[in-house]
Write a structure and sequence with these properties.
Number of strands: 27
Strand content: 25-35%
Number of helices: 8
Mean pLDDT: 75
Distance between the termini: 29 Å
Oligomer: single chain
Strand order of the largest sheet: 6-20-4-21-22-23
Number of domains: 2
CATH class of the largest domain: Alpha Beta
Radius of gyration: 33 Å
Structural class: alpha/beta
Low-confidence stretches: 16-21, 125-130, 385-392, 407-417
Amino acid sequence: MSAPGIIIRESGASSLSVMASPTAVPVFVGHFASAEASASVDEKCIRVDSWLDFSQRFVGSVASVTFTTTSPQHEATLAQETEAPSEATSVSVFEGETARFDFTFSEPVADAKKLWLKLDKADSGYGRQPAKLVCHPKGETFWLDFKTDTPKEIILSVELPLGSTTATLYLDTLFDKDAARGTFSLHASVADTEPETYTDTVSASIKAVVGNVKPDTRLHHSYFAVQHYFQNGGGPCYVLLLTTKDDSELATLPSIIQEQAPDATLLLCAETDTTPAGIELKAKVYTELDSLLRTQPSCFLIADSADGTVKPSTTPEQTATYYPSLQTRFSSRPADEAITLSGYTDVAGNNVATLAALKLINPGAHGYVVEQIQSALGDEFVTLPPPPPSPACIALRTVSAACGRHRPIWRCAGYPG
């Protein structure tokens, strides 16, 4: 290549005399939730090299659900030589579930005897409870229809094999579209012929899922700010964990950044609490970071504003403020596999631990729980609102960091800088 008076020759040197130096390494200051509930973080300022690295360490939203009903199971011992009924016990079952009734005989069946079962509908259920019960003794199906006045009761019997000591009744609850609650009584006894009184009586209450679940949710917008950064081309960065809101902790932010993130150049507060206390906290963070700006000319603060008029009182030459907010496509609800359940058991008595498992057992309950969790979390998609971190701020910070990484200042041999 040549030009008038200029000749350029390429050298076959093994090393470059011009090296790239990234100039935009951000620090996200905020509250972050660890992916492991019992995990402890030794460092306050953690270097994160990629989105995979970050997502394995932290979570954006956490949800758990507690079911406030008893287990749909009942165990009783049926005496074969007495007609005295036992005191009634009660179980609760969600609509769409299967209740399980386990009976143990006081002695092995020696003669030709039957397990007699009688199901009574509660009067309060007539005409308003579109519920059906399906009994499954030995594979047979019987219906107890709450939609009509008849039949008022169902009596059925099952032959018991000689020597048997136990029997199990499964009761499915099937509902039409707008099911509510229903109550019935289940009577059981072992006898040759239909007994006048039954050994065991169970009052079973069928409960709608509605109103019987308590979701506990937490949404961490700081997580989604970092997610937005990585998914828009961001590179390695630092996450500075706020564990409290004390002024003493905030005062240590500049020294922590200098010691644990010496190559950081961009500062950003990822907090999202829009309450007066949250806005005050963010203002205090900006104030503490300003002391770092005054002593480190290479650092730059990217802040956000609700309307573009209210700005942080930091060093103006090293501060840029952006707005407004932006609707993202990040789902605020965790995956079903990550949502934990408590108080819910399947027909075998096993605890159903996750929302994904509940979907397989009771789709209706799953749908209602999803609605409750989403209601507690808010909008389906995450908005990174001002004054907590504006997506305009995040996006511009991402472009700035990517620019500094891919089109950096060139440092040539012999150039002090």
